[in-house]
TrEMBL record:
<comment type="similarity">
    <text>Belongs to the PurS family.</text>
</comment>
<dbReference type="InterPro" id="IPR003850">
    <property type="entry name" value="PurS"/>
</dbReference>
<dbReference type="Pfam" id="PF02700">
    <property type="entry name" value="PurS"/>
</dbReference>
<keyword id="KW-0547">Nucleotide-binding</keyword>
<protein>
    <recommendedName>
        <fullName>Phosphoribosylformylglycinamidine synthase subunit PurS</fullName>
        <ecNumber>6.3.5.3</ecNumber>
    </recommendedName>
</protein>
<keyword id="KW-0436">Ligase</keyword>
<dbReference type="InterPro" id="IPR036604">
    <property type="entry name" value="PurS-like_sf"/>
</dbReference>
<keyword id="KW-0658">Purine biosynthesis</keyword>
<comment type="pathway">
    <text>Purine metabolism; IMP biosynthesis via de novo pathway; 5-amino-1-(5-phospho-D-ribosyl)imidazole from N(2)-formyl-N(1)-(5-phospho-D-ribosyl)glycinamide: step 1/2.</text>
</comment>
<keyword id="KW-0963">Cytoplasm</keyword>
<comment type="subunit">
    <text>Part of the FGAM synthase complex composed of 1 PurL, 1 PurQ and 2 PurS subunits.</text>
</comment>
<comment type="function">
    <text>Part of the phosphoribosylformylglycinamidine synthase complex involved in the purines biosynthetic pathway. Catalyzes the ATP-dependent conversion of formylglycinamide ribonucleotide (FGAR) and glutamine to yield formylglycinamidine ribonucleotide (FGAM) and glutamate. The FGAM synthase complex is composed of three subunits. PurQ produces an ammonia molecule by converting glutamine to glutamate. PurL transfers the ammonia molecule to FGAR to form FGAM in an ATP-dependent manner.</text>
</comment>
<keyword id="KW-0067">ATP-binding</keyword>
Length: 86
């Protein structure tokens, strides 16, 4: 069964309070040198059928209509190989 990964991130011009909170906490935990943190979402979908360009387009449509808010978020869709899933 094909597996697809959808990575969703806030657009660069959108404030990211969760990323800012992580950025502020890292030095307090002893981690230095990080200059920016952006927090996003990752979805892994297993879809019935054979992996194809049509199936990839269907997952892109899912990402655009449900998994992301296109007004404030960007997304990328990738087909995940069997080796990467293990």
């Amino acid at each position: 069964m094909p597996r697809f990964v959808v990575d969703v991130m806030p657009k660069p011009e959108i404030l990211d309070p969760q990323g800012k909170a992580v950025l502020g906490a890292l030095p307090r935990l002893g981690f230095e040198g990080v200059t920016e943190v952006r927090q996003g979402k990752r979805f892994e979908l297993e879809v019935e059928g054979e992996s194809s360009e049509a199936l990839l387009e269907q997952v892109r449509a899912m990402a655009e209509t449900l998994l992301s808010n296109p007004v404030i978020e960007d997304f990328e869709v990738h087909a995940q190989s069997d080796e990467a899933a293990e």
